[in-house]
Amino acid sequence: MNFEKLTGLGIGSWGLGEDPKKKKDEIAAIRYGLDHGLSVIDTAEMYGDGQSEELIGEAIKGYDREKLFLISKFYPYHATPKLERQSLEASLKRLGTDHLDLYLLHWRGSHRLSDTIRGLQALQKDGLIRYWGVSNFDTADMQELFTVPGGEECFANEDLYNISERGTEFDLQAWQEEHGVNFIGYSPFNSGKGNTIRITRNLKIVARDHGVTPHQIMLAWTMRNGNVLTIPKASSVEHMKENIATQKFKLTDDELRLLNSDFPMPTEKTPLAVI
Ligand SMILES: NC(=O)c1ccc[n+]([C@@H]2O[C@H](COP(=O)([O-])OP(=O)(O)OC[C@H]3O[C@@H](n4cnc5c(N)ncnc54)[C@H](OP(=O)(O)O)[C@@H]3O)[C@@H](O)[C@H]2O)c1
């Protein structure tokens, strides 16, 4: 069973670092988050072909590394012991650090899970990563992973999770809880330009009652049970500030019932949604 539980709010970074004109604001947003209690940053070698990691490297300069929890991911076609090490070394260089806290297989590919795990264990043994995990794994993938030697060491699985994509609530989240695997929910606003979730009348009512925006309600909703780490991406201090403020209020049972009527819980297994 894992002893370190990942919950609450982290910082997403897909799309950051790709436009030089936006860099200053993006760094300011990340630093605002770190200065106001956030510590988890999620990135990947894929994001902007390393540009997101470079931006984060710049943003975290001068911060106490021990207080940060850095997550990165490697491509499925790098999921062998040799290529994982190469990918990791490049990520560490871009991030300007000597280790990652968590290293994730970005999604399932064609390499054998046993080889992928063997490589990750070696990186762990060398102190280059503290934990390893997976992303975009469904319940059957997790079950299969646990049949592979070392598979039960998986620290986290990162999947799409927001108020309009609740499929993982059917069985995956409970399975992970039972097996001590942290659940990281990505794209709490369903990605895009942050307007890909229908702003229903009930979302507006609940937002108005709290004096916040519907987006803040969506974010508070993903954190409502205290068992998920949610990682919104914000390119401005303004958005980061709003996201941080969502940690301060709690949705009531009545409000959750209202929201549930617009965005119902899954009643049957559906294929894992991905972005
Ligand atoms: N493991 C995976 O396969 C996977 C897949 C997708 C995402 N992820 C991770 O999850 C993170 C988040 O997902 P995402 O980037 O796809 O999308 P997201 O966080 O669901 O949405 C980002 C959008 O929401 C906007 N936004 C942020 N805060 C807001 C606020 N308070 N009010 C209104 N709009 C707001 C952002 O605008 P601004 O940019 O203008 O602030 C951006 O347009 C990623 O960055 C990445 O780290 C992982």
Structural summary, described in words:
The protein has 275 residues and is an alpha/beta fold. It is built from 10 helices and 8 strands. It has an 8-stranded parallel β-sheet. Helix 7 crosses helix 8. The longest helix has 15 residues. The radius of gyration is 18 Å and the shape is globular. NADP nicotinamide-adenine-dinucleotide phosphate binds next to helix 9. The site of NADP nicotinamide-adenine-dinucleotide phosphate has 28 residues, from helix 9. GO terms for molecular function: oxidoreductase activity. It holds the Pfam family Aldo_ket_red.
What top-tier CATH class fits best?
Answer: Alpha Beta
- Structural category is alpha/beta
Secondary-structure element series:
EHEHEHEHEHEHEHHEHH
| Number of E-state strands | 8
| Largest sheet geometry | 8 strands, parallel
**CATH overall fold name:** TIM Barrel
- Distance N to C terminus: 29 Å
Strand order of the largest sheet: 1-8-7-6-5-4-3-2
InterPro entries: AKR, NAD(P)_OxRdtase_dom_sf, NADP_OxRdtase_dom
Active site: 47
Site (Lowers pKa of active site Tyr): 73
Binding site for substrate: 106
